[in-house]
Amino acid sequence: MMSRVVVVNGLPGVGKSSLAGKIAQQLGWPLLTKDMIKESLFDSIGWGDRPWSRKLSVASMNLLFLWLQREALAGRDVVIEGNFDHTRDTERFLRAMHQTPTQWVQVLVVCDGEVLLERHRARGLSGKRHPGHHEGALLEELQPLLRDGKTVPLGLPGTCVTVDTTDFMLVNTDRIVQHVCAALGL
């Protein structure tokens, strides 16, 4: 059975969680996210300093790939969202799906670097993010990456749709879903 996976990838703060949620809702597919797992772990076993947050990120990513594999083995199509790294995670995606023929579409979310830095500053001050993320320390740690505004696409077969969220008002979710559906033959 062919499994279809939409991978929504991008740096922290580009808007990938919001976009992935809208894509999953329009497709009627489950949404798998690293932060959903990580924040559940924070609430279950507590949060501490930035090294503890990084440790839970690794555990969350491991669980995310296991979750993806189980969904695919059950024949379900999914949208998966996270800050994936080309070097580290391309092979993890392919290994997770090795038992299931898979059709991939990647949605790469990018943003102007200065806008992204400002979003992170605002997000840290808003109090809306789980405190376990340590937004201030994260901003300092990721500043060189955020300034670039984009990450390298994963090396997955299939279509890659790039979405620029510098101005959220210009993001047309319906058109993005149309591109995804066309790429998947839906």
Helix content: 40-55%
> Can you summarize the main beta sheet?
5 strands, parallel
State the secondary-structure class: alpha/beta
CATH classification class: Alpha Beta
Look at the structure and name the CATH superfamily: P-loop containing nucleotide triphosphate hydrolases
State the end-to-end distance: 16 Å
Would you list the SSEs in sequence order as H and E? EHEHHEHEHHEH
Strand fraction equals 15-25%
Task: Supply the CATH architecture.
Answer: 3-Layer(aba) Sandwich
Q: Count up the domains.
A: 1
User: How many helices does DSSP assign?
Assistant: 7
Low-confidence stretches: none
Radius of gyration: 16 Å
What is the average per-residue confidence, as pLDDT, rounded to a whole number?
A: 87
Structure description:
There is one protein chain. By secondary structure, the protein is α/β, with parallel strands linked by helices. The protein has one domain (3-184): 3-Layer(aba) Sandwich (Rossmann fold), CATH 3.40.50. It is built from seven helices and five strands. The chain has a five-stranded parallel β-sheet, with helices on both faces. α2 packs across α3 (50-73). 36% of the residues are buried.
List keywords for this structure.
186 residues; alpha/beta; Rossmann fold; five-stranded parallel β-sheet; 17% strand; globular
SSE topology sketch:
Elements: E1 3-10, H1 16-27, E2 31-33, H2 34-45, H3 50-73, E3 78-82, H4 86-96, E4 102-110, H5 113-126, H6 135-148, E5 159-164, H7 173-184
Parallel strand pairs: 1-3, 1-4, 2-3, 4-5
Helix pairs in contact: 1-7, 2-3, 5-6
